[in-house]
Structures are given as structure tokens and as C-alpha cells.
Amino acid sequence: MSAAESVTNGTGAQLPPHICLREDPLHLESVIQQVEDGSCGAVASFMGTTRNHSGGKEVTALDYEAYAPMAEKTIAEVCAEAQAKWPQVRRIAVEHKLGSCPIGQSGVNIAVSSAHRADAMDCCRYVIDEIKARAPIWKREIYADGSEWRENAEWRETIAAKKGCGCKH
Amino acid sequence: MRIRVLLFAGAKEAMRAGAVDVEVNASSADNTVSVAELMDSLRQTHPPLAKVLPNSLLAVNQEYAEDDVRIKEGDEVALIPPISGG
């Protein structure tokens, strides 16, 4: 499709995703700037932020660790699936924090641009849900009196799909 | 055959190491070992991992692997305990 045709029918070609795992604090503007595009009428975004409580305990911070090359590869696969499901999506940007993440700060930021809002919002939801189920990233919750590695509920489905059942062997 | 297994999060803490080397009996036919066999060897040779193994998967060359996937020398193998990103 030529640039002129692209403008006429209101859609641009899909762009490769922006994927970044980083130690420094995340800022939403960073992912939004990555996806903004004149052909898009919608940018949907999601921030996953550190909550000050979990399971009745006071949380003081989170600590993120990743198997970085596989995490980036997995997130790229999720983005490719999402772009196949929502062809009108122009670009997806994902940034994930590594290391310490204080209360209120973002552990994951996602932005999706599309011609229309429904595709951008649905795609954004899909990307965060699949990252939580599949990306090899771990968070340790830090409490006043200790710490604990957490487990996403979605991991059970990933295990069941690979091991054939969700039970403990 | 000796296979290096990368460790993360709770598994890394349990072993106090970022990786462990596991000696396995490879199949004489093609010098490979299955994911299930490597998991069994890990359980037997590294008792501190016993608690985390039932809820973990192995990744082979950065893909989650089912029990019957064959691992060969030089593959990148990682133990993936329950994830919690996002």
C-alpha cells in the first residue's frame, strides 16, 4: 500500500512493537510517544503499579527479576499474536521494570494505538493478560517483616497447558 | 551428559546460585534427554529445589517445553518457577 492509499483508507501498516525491560523508573509518556501516529484515532494505555497491600499485609516495595532474553521474546510473541487478532492496531509498546519498584510507581506500562478505540482497548487488555500468564518475570513483595516471591493466578493455566493438568505431580 | 540449568527467583534463592549443572543419563541413540527426565534428575540431585519444582516449567532455548521435548548438548535450559510479572 502506498503512503497516499494509507492516508485515504485511514489505516497505516502495522509497526514492530517497542519492548523494553529497564532498571530506571517507568513513565507512561514513554510508551505513549512510541505508539502515537497520525493515522490513529485511539491510544489505549495500561499501568500496573505497586500496591501498598497484599493479602492483608502491608507492602513497602516490589523487587522485579527477569529471564530477560526469554521475557523479551515472549512479549514479542504476545504482540505478534495481538497484531494478528487486531489488524487495525498500528503499534504496541511495552516497558517492564526490573529491580526495586516503590509504592505507586509503575512496574509495567503498555500503550496501543489503533484507528478506533475498541481495537486499542481490547488489544491492550490481551497484551497485559498474556504477559502475566507467560513472560518469565518475577516479583518479590517486600514487607516490613520479610518478603515473598509472588505467583500470578494465570500461571496455573500456563502450567496446565504444558503439563496436561494443573495438579501437583 | 551434563546440562546447565539457569535458575531464577525462588529457585535461585533455594540453591544460592544462578545456575546448576546436572549430570543426566542421555539416550544412547541420539544423546538427548527428555524434559521429564531432567526434572527427575534435578529433584534427586538438588533437594533444595524440591519445593519449587512441582509448580515450575523448564524452558528449552527460551520456549516453555512439554515433558516429552528432547534436550541436547548446548541447548539453553532454564527452570521457570511460578511467574509474577506485570
Characteristics of this structure?
heterodimer, A: 169 residues, alpha+beta, Aldehyde Oxidoreductase, domain 3, 5-stranded antiparallel β-sheet, 4-stranded mixed β-sheet, 5 helices, 9 strands, 34% strand, globular, B: 86 residues, Ubiquitin-like (UB roll), 5-stranded mixed β-sheet, two-stranded antiparallel ribbon, 2 helices
Overview of the structural elements:
The complex is a heterodimer of chains A (169) and B (86). Chain A is an alpha+beta fold. Chain A has one domain (12-163): Molybdopterin biosynthesis MoaE subunit (Aldehyde Oxidoreductase, domain 3), CATH 3.90.1170. Helix content of chain A is 35%, strand content 34%. In chain A, the strands form two sheets. In chain A, strands 3, 4, 6, 8 and 9 form a five-stranded antiparallel β-sheet that branches. In chain A, strands 1-5-7-2 form a four-stranded mixed β-sheet, with helices on both faces. In chain A, a hairpin with a 2-residue loop joins strand 3 (53-54) and strand 4. In chain A, helix 3 packs antiparallel against helix 4. The longest helix of chain A has 18 residues, at 68-85. The radius of gyration of chain A is 18 Å and the shape is globular. Chain B has 86 residues and is α+β, with helices and mostly antiparallel strands. Chain B has one domain: Ubiquitin-like (UB roll), CATH 3.10.20. Chain B contains two helices and seven strands; from the N terminus they run E-H-E-E-H-E-E-E-E. In chain B, the strands form two sheets. Chain B has a five-stranded mixed β-sheet, covered by helices on one side. In chain B, strands 3-6 form a two-stranded antiparallel ribbon. The radius of gyration of chain B is 12 Å and the shape is globular. The mean pLDDT of chain B is 96.
